[in-house]
Amino acid sequence: MSTIPQSRLEQVIERFDEVEARMGATTDSDEIVALSREHAELKPVVEAARNLISMREGLSEAEAMAKEGDPEMAELALEEINDLKARIPEAESEMQLLLLPKDADDKANIVLEVRAGTGGDEAALFAGDLFRMYSRYAQLQGWKIDLQSASVGDVGGYKEIIANVEGDGVYGRLKWESGVHRVQRVPATETQGRVHTSAASVAVLPAPEDVEIDIRQEDIRIDTMRASGSGGQHVNTTDSAVRITHLPTGIVATSSEKSQHVNRDKAMQQLKIRLYEKEKQERDAERAEARASQVGSGDRSEKIRTYNYPENRVTDHRIGLTLYALDKVIAGDKLEDVVEALMTEDQARRLAAMEDA
Question: What is the Cα–Cα distance from 40 to 24, expressed in whole angstroms?
Fold first, then answer.
């Protein structure tokens, strides 16, 4: 691994000092929020930079001391040299990771969409399993899930389910989940014990708080409709559900709460998020060469993972990861093992791309 230039470390520290100074001087609330966010992001980077600088200076001093001629001091200096030479590479590696360019959306909340694919009723059941897996994982991370809409399958599960997930770094941890998830198991309706293969698609859309998408009134059509209910007194008898269609792109957003006013706001926000995702995908396509160094493109048509129930196996095809703990992964308790492996692989590939550049 190449050595990080001292000037790069000093540059990070200088920026941190500038942010701190500005935080103490400004009275603008928006600027204070932005500076506070940058300060929090820079703090661990600066601590690692100062630690690395200190270790390098310590090594130089120890090497100078070893040459002074005093045998006792030279022996102590040699011990210090050996210790620092063993520790500095690890500190360099940590610093390299911290300096990797970050996806601006990694801290964003998300819209999570799970849809049944091939496999009929079994695909809907699997979509339900996936949504429960993400719900449990979100609970373990301390995130909040807000259900937006759901279409229940004929025998359970979901034909489609959409939810907002809010918390610290949601997109950065779940962005790799976009794609086709495949399940291999014996359906409950299978009388001869044959293993069937079904699929569900997952989409993870970043939902930054400061999404700024200009939508012209003449570019949208707003339709109201009766919200579906579960029967009896729960059926909504007013046309409160809202569907907004963005005419230039054909993108549709819906919301079916009880209040039409709330639905308009929610559907408009969902539309902005979908248009933001469209812009993001177009930007990514322009940076195709850079994306080639990452774990996956996030293409929703890409088969990313197989869940094999007879073998209790989960295989992520992008990084060749296989875990014989499907029961714990699908329960959400060991999904973190998969997420961490994907993040580590992505970091390694981006580091290699940086060094080759």
Answer: 15
CATH topology of domain 105-357: Alpha-Beta Plaits (3.30.70)
**Tens-place pLDDT, residues 272-331:** 888 888 887 776 665 444 444 445 544 455 689 999 999 999 999 999 999 999 999 999
Helix 335-356 × helix 121-141 angle, to 10°: 80
Measured distance CA(127)–CA(134) in Å, rounded: 11
Does 40 or 70 have the greater pLDDT score?
A: 40
Strand bridging mode 303-308 / 179-185: parallel
How far, in Å, are 111, 203, 345 from residue 210 at the CA level? 15, 21, 30
DSSP state of 341: H
335 burial level (CB within 10 Å; 0-12, 13-18, 19+): buried
**pTM (predicted TM-score):** 0.70
What six digits make up the tokens of 74?
A: 């030279």
Q: Which two tokens stand for residue 337?
A: 């093992």
Distance CA 100, CA 98 (A): 6
Best CA proximity match to 242, nearest among 257, 233, 227, 255: 255
Q: Please report which confidence band the pLDDT of residue 2 belongs to, taking 50, 70 and 90 as the band edges.
A: low
Those residues with Cβ within 8 angstroms of residue 306's Cβ, 6 or more apart along the chain or in another chain: 181, 182, 183, 184, 313, 314, 315, 317
Please, what is the angle between helix 71-99 and helix 335-356, to 10°? 100
Which residues, in sequence order, are bridge partners of residue 150? 161
Specify the residue for token string 């790799």.
Answer: 176
Can you give the residue ranges of every domain in the chain?
6-99, 105-357
Select, from the ranges 223-227, 229-233, 250-254, the one with the highest average predicted confidence (pLDDT).
250-254
CA gap 36, 17 in Å, rounded = 13
Q: Is the pLDDT of residue 44 over 60?
A: yes
**What is the torsional sign of CA 286, 292, 298, 299?**
positive
Residue 69: both structure tokens together: 């001629």
